[in-house]
């Protein structure tokens, strides 16, 4: 994996001044639709499309198959199953994984499981609260983070700020940061952000703008009005985690997955 990353770095260093030709939005969306419809995706992952809306979300962020794209902490690979094959031929997929632990190992196991889909994926490391090179500076067209900002904020404001700084450094001028996270109403107690897994829109925008980003758009694609945001074990009470086990399982199944913010930021040119 290290050899692959070094080769990737050399390729990017040669081509840093080149910019992929813009792809028509309808062509990019068609490619996303094909990747999401792949029979090679895990059936368990496909079952969650109802809540995660991958085609609409990736199209909103402006994902195209000829980009250099970094995914923050892919975990078990729900989005990696779509993104790595999507970018395999014309672009670059980079998985910025944890420095250690079972979630990192789950990502690495997925990427090693199928050469036809994941052989060109590159792995970098993103540690909490430490400056991390998730991609060579100024090389990425787009960075995506799905339900991760709350993890960094739970480690402290400094750790969350470092995440956005690392992302800003990796992106090209004009590059996009796409954020999806669990939505906490603005009127809720701020202290809930430290324990519930939910975040206020204003908190994400504050962190992003402090790093230099500009809010470029937002969407209700991943909103869930059935979620009242107050559960005994925070967002993990809801599916797919069901942190309470069988207790009120049917109730939480009806609510579905969490209410989510979908925010697009741009690094100014």
Q: Could you list some keywords that capture this structure?
A:
eight-stranded mixed beta sheet, 8 strands, Rossmann fold, 269 residues, 38% helix, alpha/beta
Number of DSSP helical runs: 12
Q: Helix fraction?
A: 25-40%
* Cα-to-Cα separation, first versus last residue: 32 Å
Order of helices and strands: HHHHHEHEHHEEHHEEHEHE
Q: Biggest β-sheet, characterized?
A: 8 strands, mixed
Rg calc: 18 Å
Q: What is the CATH topology?
A: Rossmann fold
The CATH architecture category equals 3-Layer(aba) Sandwich
Q: How would you name the oligomeric state of the polypeptide chains in this document?
A: single chain
Tally of individual domains: 1
Judging from the principal axes of the Cα atoms, what is the shape? globular
The secondary structure category is alpha/beta
CATH superfamily caption: Vaccinia Virus protein VP39
Class in CATH? Alpha Beta
List low-confidence stretches.
Answer: 13-17
Strand content: 15-25%
Q: Kindly state the number of beta strands.
A: 8
Q: What is the mean pLDDT?
A: 93
